[in-house]
Amino acid sequence: MKLLFVASLTLLTLSYLDQVDSSAYDKIVYHSRIRAKKQGPNMCALQQVMGTKKKYFSTCRNWYKGTICGKKAVVLYECCPGYMELEGMRGCPAASPIDNVYGTLGLLKADITKRYSDISKIKEEIDGSGTYTMFAPTDDAWDQLDGVCTALEGNVNNELYNALHYHMVNKRLLTKDLKNDLKLESMHNNQGLHINHYSNGIVTVNCARIIHANQVATNGVVHLIDRVISAVGSTIKEVINSNEELGSLSVCIILYSLSLNTFLKYHLLNSMQCSEAIMSGSVYETLEGSNIEIGCDGDSLTVNGIKMVLKKDIVTSNGVIHLIDQVLMPDSAKQVTELVGGSQSTFGDMVSELGLSAAMGAGTQYTLLAPLNGVFTEEVMSMDQRLLKIILENHILKLKVTLSELYNGQLLETLGGNFLRVFIYRTAVCIENACMVRGSKEGSNGALHLLTSLIKMPKTTMYELLEADGRFTVFLSLMESAGLTELLKQEGAYTVFAPTDDAFDGLTEEDMTLLTNDVNALRTILLYHFSKGVFLNGGLEGGVTNMIKTIQGNNLQVLSVNNSIQVNSVNVPSTDLMASNGVVHVVKTLLYPGDLPVGREELLLLLRRLIKYIQIKVQRIQRTQLKERVNSQKSQATKSPVKVIETDPSLIKVTRVIERQPTVTKVTIEGEPKFTKVTRVIERFSKRH
Predict the structure, then answer these.
(1) What totals of helices (H) and strands (E) does the chain contain, helices first?
(2) Where is the FAS1 domain (predicted)?
(3) Global pTM exceeds 0.70
(4) Residue 194 and residue 181: Cα distance in Å, rounded?
(5) Helices (H), 316-470
């Protein structure tokens, strides 16, 4: 036996207490009533899979998709359980008549079950006193048994009687009582029935789905089920040992011990998943610790998107077995190169073709940073092979780094000897300019992370990048005048929204002089374009306003939508120009904090010409108030000369000279977010200045 499993394998699901609201079924039915309210009273909306008789009170997810197990579903309107139509009236205005369990079988058109109750003498029980719950198979369910029904009818006092008793419990149980993982004793030798109540509203008994529940009778309740159930007494291990198709698995259990072998644990789920409860793909954790996706495609079950289930719902006393025809290999048992999936196949092929796979020696751990296939455009693929190899070397790390081990500011050494920076955001993780998407995996000798773009190694500082670009001459000139050029050159991690020369169209030499002469005001404006930290487009949370604090102190409001961004409602035509000390985003207008007023009239007029997207606030000083305050201080004047003290040049300065006792008084004009200092200098001169 070359392979452990050649012909078949089992996907085993152990029963485990899965806390689910016991009324999930009732909630689904309630929503079905709401969807059908326009059809009349007590009507329910169901979905029926096209080409089949299968009908569901479906979840919102299936309802709005219009599909069940990937197949188109049509909408049906029927009376909700417990109600019936009246001729000439809309909907289902009448409550169904209440009868004993036997009579209720006829009401539900479970004619074969009712007939079998007659001939097996079960009728004597369910037609009399007592309290019962009967899981009654539909007529279609009995028809699926083919020749089995003939054998049952040939031994009505024994086989048929026992079969019906196995569908009965001697107490009344509504769906709210049928809790998940509930074990019931049937009326056939107290043999067990296994109840599962799933969050999608599906309720099963030994994996048979309840399709019409809670039909209350005078002596119990009837639930219609979609298949005939048979008694089970064997455990999963006992079924494996006795099933010839599972011989390889049985040998493996003996040799390696089922509860200890990682490989086998990958085939075990810690919950019981019956096929009828699976209406769409869902992810489940295996006992090995990894996740697998169990889904459906029509009547077929799928595992990780592949149809591989040969036989489903082999019910045992401690779970259920689904027989599959392929070996499931956990990621933890794979080499890192084997983790590369279909969406990254181009990267995998290029790594192999360029000889990089051979560079990853045995016994050494690596991390692959795999760009998605769409990244490899015709332009990329037409590159010189030597250059492409250098680029891809920077997508292979020299150590194994899982997603949980990444942190902001971390440096990761690549196969090419370079170091990549890690940036962590609220909803994203990026490495240099490339951000990750879901799908990270961990193998036996490494890890795999998926990227949205090729990693571009920065070679210049922000200053060198802007200077070489040629579109930022005015911005660089203003940075020099403000003494801030070093900010663009020094080591660190910064984000700058750099205005192009277009932002300064119409600026005269006189305007430049006005800006550069008031250094403090200029620095305030320019530092509003800078933030500490590298904020990439892909790192911004989409659809919401991201508040980014600037070095100036006020916030930038950055919105990311459909892979483009706006800052303070201004479009950003070019993003993520990476530098060794930060990232540059390009804007075509000067930015200014909307809540910061301007005090100087000439500066205000200039900024209003340059900045159109906001109405800049103005802060003025009332001259009458100033005069009153100055006059009140005259009596305190002295002859001693005092030098003029200049205040914040970005706001209004008022200097008054009055002969008398010198005193300096600060008059604060209230206003947000800054204050204006007014200094009066009183001095005795031979003549008035």
Answers:
(1) 22, 39
(2) 100-229, 260-328, 331-455, 459-591
(3) no
(4) 7
(5) 345-353, 356-359, 378-381, 385-393, 462-469
